[in-house]
Amino acid sequence: MISRERKRERRRRLSAVFKEPSREDKRALRSALRMGLHLIGLGLGNEKDITVNALEAIRDKCAHVYLENYTSVLAASPSKLEEFYGKKVTICDRAFVESNGVDGMLTQAEKEDVAFLVVGDCFAATTHSDLVLRAHEKKVKVKTYYNASIMNACAGSGLQLYNFGKTVSLCFFTPTWKPDSFYDSIKMNKVNGGLHTLVLLDIRVKEPTVEALCTGKKIYEPARFMSVSTAARQMLYVENEVRKEGVYDEDSVVVATARVGQEDERFISCTLKEMCRVNAGGPLHSLILVGTEVHELEENMLKHYRAKPEDFYPEGEEPESQYLEDGVL
């Protein structure tokens, strides 16, 4: 039998476990439960691609909602987002994210829940890793809500993700600046097992003009979203006129990805030379350079998405130039 002393000791221990928390304990608990910055991936389609957890966080917790609007673009207007989320949405351009605007947002997040919305996945752009580091410096807690991005949705092309190498970016050329550093990564992917290369294409939204940079005036370039035809011409220029190493050529197989995640998404496969005349429709576009080692299932998917006559610009019609100056290519 259990002695009275042991029973009393057991009751004492239970009482200690379930005692009413002190005021300091309650304050610490509230602080632990409150998340400062909610970093939310929106996916690739429209306002409804957000996860349920993220939507509940915006509706039930967040006092302020910001939308990053320069590393990608969602197929839904800010007003659509506001209607669906039930909150006012503040648009953030590159200057906001990379300068003092972020400091103000993080100051808010020290006292209230703040949502920062990113098209695609939160960490597909390195800018947002920097945002997390800046939040931690200010002791602001960060909760991440992941989502789909082109980095994984490119698998809709039928090319298997584990056969991809390093992803590269392709910028708009100018008459005096034609960067070719992407070429080395494509070469590395080819050498290291004939891997596919995802090529992310330039997005120019609210970019200051040269005059603006010189004078401090707020003058911006017209918005531009690189097309797969422009990308193909730039890639061939680098191979044929600059590097000449035979890493790829006019007959290399490529896949256009257009508006992935949206109702009218497209995948179109053809040669790099043919891609110069492909009309894949509106933005956003990416390009996949198919590797030299291709699985049989991948080959069948490439045939499935083979370009049709109606995918090309009509004979005699040239794709419209996307450059701000003449004589770029």
Question: How would you sum up this structure, described in words?
Answer:
With 329 residues, the protein is an alpha/beta fold. It is built from 13 helices and twelve strands. It has helices spanning 4-17, 23-33, 52-60, 78-85, 94-98, 100-109, 127-137, 150-153, 182-191, 210-215, 228-243, 272-275, 296-304, and strands at residues 37-41, 64-68, 89-92, 114-118, 142-145, 168-170, 197-201, 203-204, 224-225, 253-258, 266-271, 285-289. It has a five-stranded parallel beta sheet with strand order 3-2-4-1-5, with helices on both faces. A hairpin with a 7-residue loop joins strand 10 and strand 11. The longest helix is centred in the last third of the chain and has 16 residues, at 228-243. The chain is globular, with a radius of gyration of 26 Å. It starts with a helix and ends in a 25-residue tail after the last helix. The model has no long low-confidence stretch (mean pLDDT 90).
Give a brief rundown of this model.
The protein has 329 residues and is of the alpha/beta class.
